[in-house]
Amino acid sequence: MKFGYTIIYVKNVLETVAFYEQAFGLSRRFIHESNLYAEMETGDTALTFAGEEAAELSGLAVAPNRKDNLSAGWEICLVCENVATAYSHAINNGATPLLPPEEKPWNQTVSYVKDLNGCLVEIASPVRK
Amino acid sequence: MQLPIGYNEQLVTPKSRRQTAAHWSFIANQKGEAIILPDGCCDIILRFTLDQQNQPTNLTPIITGPATSPYHVEYMPGDGWAGLRIYPANARTLWGAKLGTAQDRILQGEAAIAHLPYLAKLLQNLQPNSDIHTALLALPPLQNTDNDRHLVHNLIDLIHVSGGQISINQLAQNTDHSPRHILRTFRNMVGLSAKLYARIVQFHRALNLVQKTDLSNAEIAAECGYADQAHMIRAFQKFGGFSPSRIPVNLSLPGLPVI
Fold it and tell me: What ipTM is given for this predicted complex?
């Protein structure tokens, strides 16, 4: 067994891809022509988005992710060198501020925002030695 | 669900099916009976019998209100139905001021024509060899011009995505309206309360899991958001007329073959 994909079910795949490009500087790997599925260029740990219709198509029922809802109990963590800059850039591009960058005792800078769908996104530095 | 690069098949999602007036038909080739399960939708139906030359005769128009109860149909060889399933948000457009009392109602023959006079024209214009399906599709489309239609489409989608488990408060929060406004708007346009519509959606998901998986009834009840097995059994009795352990084989499910 190996970890394959993280798939987040969202109301609008295209808007979510555009948001992740603008707010976090990620780029898209591909968008399925149905606009119900997209993969971001995140290396082996693929971050992907699927339309909520795709969940229903698979016979699943999900709690919809929405901006005003209590966030679901999981997050994605994006790692960069300059957390303060990335945090401001995300907020200036539509991310909802949550916890500003903070130095942790284990030598890591950590901050949190919410994306356009109310999902938790951590923006953090690598743990420095 | 991951879609590989290069996978180009057109995806027909439950949402896209819900938003079209689905066109279905059934012609019996033997004596039988079927249980039509409720899906909260209205239909415009032509019932007919094929004669010796395979021509439809005895055409009866039928209009149904939002369905919430199972309906038993007995048929003989040659009995047929062709129907248009109406998108739930268009129920008000179909029933007008009578929607408030239309739940599980069935208008047949003259009563159906009195309600939708163009059904009389449709029947008059049917010639031998004319295609009933084409005739039905030529009915004037139900134009829902209500300003709140997008809100109701949104509510219907949220109910389906959550398998009927979303609460009224969550629906209100997710659409930026008050619970009171969404309850009133939903009932006004669909002809059913949002809660009842959600219970029908919840039932169909549970039924689907009973039919397709090896999960126990207790596991399915938990996955589908029933408080316990007893609540799920009551829902099966109400919407299907059977228990989860005795699913009849002659069920006709929403999403009948569309041709």
Answer: 0.83
